[in-house]
Design brief:
Helix content is 46%, strand content 11%. It is built from 11 helices and 8 strands.
């Protein structure tokens, strides 16, 4: 049995359900969080890229994080804490999230990856304002976002940063971070290289298909930790199919899968993603197949 620390494993991303007028549907959100937590991932990740976090107001972000904690069934909740740009506003949001009871914070790389010294100083100085564990996130919405492996190694060595959501989508770059992760956890976001990353020493996953198929990832991780490579590969193959099913029209596609799986939410998005009748029919066919074949 492979042994990992408490910050490894499956981080299940949380979508933000919207009503037809694009206001947040908090009732649907609570139902959805409870449904996600029922799969018993190692962590929930509220207010993330898949949550359309940059379209949410600070008040909406705080309420979503608060309701995620309330409905988490004891699953630890991490949430993004540095979307503001003024230091005082960043600190205020961090403190509010601490009061909401989140387990840990996620700091995005903030488009500073072409300025590694400034990025290191920014992240380490911001970390001084909280005692909570911190993950890093190469958020593609703020470019350049891909952190140099040397910078990550230095941040990991401080002990304040427990892992990183790696979004490089290149196995060579993933391995560079794995080589310097030390006691931290490289968490994989890229689905095509998920199995290879696990085999190379990645210690978890934070990826878009967890929004509607967390149970598949939990099963793959369980096989991986049990060193059942055939079982892990089997669930990886199912995850590949799920990834392809949601690829066009994400995250409306993921919301529609959740709906077909019994969660009462619309597939409305603030980012403009919409599903054509043909896409809806293809998703319905995939979900029917997944249910009939024991995938869902």
């Amino acid at each position: 049995m492979l042994q990992f620390d408490e910050y490894a494993g499956v981080y299940t991303l949380l979508l933000t359900p919207f009503k037809e007028d694009l206001s947040v549907d908090y009732r649907a959100y609570e139902e959805y969080v409870s449904w996600q937590a029922s799969f018993k991932p190692q962590h929930l990740f509220a207010v993330c890229g898949s949550s359309e976090m940059t379209s949410l107001s600070p008040e909406e972000r705080l309420k979503c994080a608060t309701l995620a904690v309330k409905n988490s069934q004891g699953v630890p909740v991490f949430t993004t804490g540095n979307l503001q740009y003024e230091r005082e506003a960043e600190i205020a949001e961090i403190k509010a999230l601490e009061q909401a009871g989140v387990t840990g914070l996620v700091f995005v790389t903030k488009g500073m990856s072409d300025r590694p010294d400034e990025q290191y100083e920014y992240l380490t100085s911001l970390a001084q304002y909280t005692d909570l564990p911190i993950l890093l996130y190469e958020f593609p919405g703020m470019r350049p976002h891909l952190m140099n492996a040397d910078v990550y190694g230095k941040l990991a060595a401080t002990g304040r940063f427990k892992g990183i959501k790696d979004c490089t989508c290149l196995l060579t770059e993933i391995k560079k971070k794995i080589a310097v992760q030390g006691d931290s956890n490289v968490l994989q976001a890229n689905i095509p290289f998920l199995y290879d990353a696990f085999m190379s020493g990645a210690r978890g996953v934070v990826a878009t298909p967890t929004t509607c198929g967390a149970d598949l990832f939990v099963k793959m991780w369980a096989c991986h930790t049990a060193q059942d490579t055939e079982g892990a590969k089997k669930w990886y193959e199912q995850i590949i199919l799920l990834d392809n099913a949601i690829d066009s029209g994400f995250n409306a596609s993921a919301k529609y899968i959740c709906r077909l799986r019994g969660v009462n939410m619309t597939d409305r998005t603030r980012g403009g993603a919409e599903l054509s009748p043909a896409r809806r029919r293809s998703i319905e066919a995939y979900v029917d197949w997944a249910k009939s074949n024991g995938v869902f």
